[in-house]
Amino acid sequence: MKKLLVVLFVLAILSTGCVKEPVALYFEQPIISSSLADTSLAVFAVPDVDSNGWHHWDSGADTLSMSLYIHETAGQNALVSGISYRVYDIDGNQISSKSESYIPFINMNAHGQDTLTMSVIIDEGDADDLDNADGINDNVGEGYVSFQVNFYDEKGTPYSSVPVFRNIKVIKP
Ligand SMILES: [Ca+2]
Ligand SMILES: [Ca+2]
Ligand SMILES: [Ca+2]
Q: Residue 135 CA: which ligand is closest?
């Protein structure tokens, strides 16, 4: 009887070992969660420099600085290699994007936190796209900007964060 219990015990340990393996692999990946420091509607006042209306290739633009709090949540070291944003019109069509690389990469310890800042530029062409997408050509438009962080684990495998969104509005000053 005792022998049977020992065998069952060993089998139980072995079977838990088998089940555990894929779960353990999953948790070896760093995860960076991010949130915007300011989630309010961001208003871009884009001047129509030559007073002929907002057009692509005209020189008017407005820039707003936006900060992202980032936090490693899986307990694994990560190397942050860059950040990017995408601007979308009210229908979800992408109208512009920009990315920045961090050279050298930013070391982020397991459970570490940091703040990344990026300048978001809306030029006359973007402003016109946002304006017209709502169906009314009235020099007012709304849309979204999303931010995504790129990072590596210590084996060099690349990952990216789940994008976070902020509502934006464009007006003529
Ligand atoms: Ca213009
Ligand atoms: Ca327009
Ligand atoms: Ca409009």
A: 3
What does the block give as tokens for 52? 């002929």
The secondary structure of residue 33, as a DSSP letter, is E
- Ligand approaching nearest to the C-alpha of 54: 1
For residue 145, give its domain range. 31-171
Tell me whether residue 10 is in a domain.
Answer: no
Per-residue pLDDT 10s for the chain (173 aa) are 566 655 555 555 555 555 555 555 555 899 999 999 999 999 999 999 999 999 999 999 999 999 999 999 999 999 999 999 999 999 999 999 999 999 999 999 999 999 999 999 999 999 999 999 999 999 999 999 999 999 999 999 999 999 999 999 999 99
Which CATH number belongs to the domain containing residue 104 in this structure? 2.60.40.10
CA of residue 131 to ligand 2 center, whole Å: 5
Cα separation values, 173 from 43, 49, 120, 129, Å = 11, 11, 18, 17
The answer to whether residue 97 is domain-embedded is: yes
Ligand index nearest the alpha carbon of residue 49: 1
Ligand in closest contact with the CA of 170: 3
- How remote is the CA of residue 130 from the centroid of ligand 3, in Å? 7
Between the CA of 138 and the centroid of ligand 2 the distance, in Å, is 6
Query: In the chain, what is the straight-line distance between the N-terminal and C-terminal CA atoms, in Å?
Result: 87
